[in-house]
Amino acid sequence: MSKLWQARFFTTVNQLRDLPATVVPEIAFAGRSNAGKSTAINILTNQKGLAFASKTPGRTQHINYFSIGGAHVGQHRKDPTIVDEIRAMLVDLPGYGYAEVSGNAKLHWQKLLGDYVQRREQLAALVLIMDSRRPFTDLDTQMLEWFAPTGKPIHCILTKADKLNRNEQANVLREAKGVLESYVDEDGEGFPFTVQLFSALKRIGIEEADAKIQELIGLDIEEADIDDAIDGGGDERQAPDASAQAPDHS
Predict the structure, then answer these.
(1) Who wins on pLDDT, 75 or 17?
(2) Could you say which of 105, 131, 195, 208 is the most buried, measured as most Cβ atoms within 10 Å of its Cβ?
(3) pLDDT digits over 75-94, tens only?
């Protein structure tokens, strides 16, 4: 069983000042509205309704946190999350690029997303969700370029690959790798960018994405090794505000 299946709702925030005080690694999922971000999160965590997919794309305006560890699997469980046993956080960022969202909301999201991906120390990596038929839109590229200067990994998931034939899949994957390889730092070194094809419908790339995400946030390390490290260096994890609220699905 994948450790990602342990995911459960932790908190939701709409301002950077309300981000949880936990210091465990976070991996954030970003993408255009309708790119399949919520679907990808739900299938990777094996939970149908963990990430909320609104019928109106772009309506979800909050950053939603899901904890890994510290509780039994499943949203229906009523037992409390033991904060000291949380090993990582999955972070669902607001979808971007939906035309009917008001101008003020767009500006708020832009600042919220930009500040979060550039400044959040706990953020270990970014998962950029893109429709395989329309990858690297202007907003996807903006997100990529916001995050690249941090030097942290980006894993691109090209969703809805079942809509493409084999030749189209091979071509889009090759082209995506070319785009990512074109980004280099001031020393001419490439960034830690990776990419894969994915389809929730045909279950393409699920194991690959699962393994990569666990690797990026250290879930591939056995808990015994973590305990040894803690015993040697002390446990510095902090508890968040106990007043974590339920997600706003309105």
Answers:
(1) 17
(2) 195
(3) 556 788 899 999 999 999 98
* Whole-prediction pTM: 0.84
DSSP string, the chain: --GGGG-EEEEEESSGGGS----S-EEEEEEBTTSSHHHHHHHHHT-TTSS---SSTT---SEEEEEESSS-SSTT--SPP-GGG--EEEEEPPPB--TTS-HHHHHHHHHHHHHHHHH-TTEEEEEEEEETTS-S-HHHHHHHHHHGGG---EEEEEE-GGGS-HHHHHHHHHHHHHHHHT-B-TTSPBP-EEEEE-BTTTTBSHHHHHHHHHHHTTTTS-HHHHHHHHHHH--------TT-------
Q: What distance in Å separates the CA atoms of residue 164 and residue 11, rounded to the nearest whole number?
A: 37
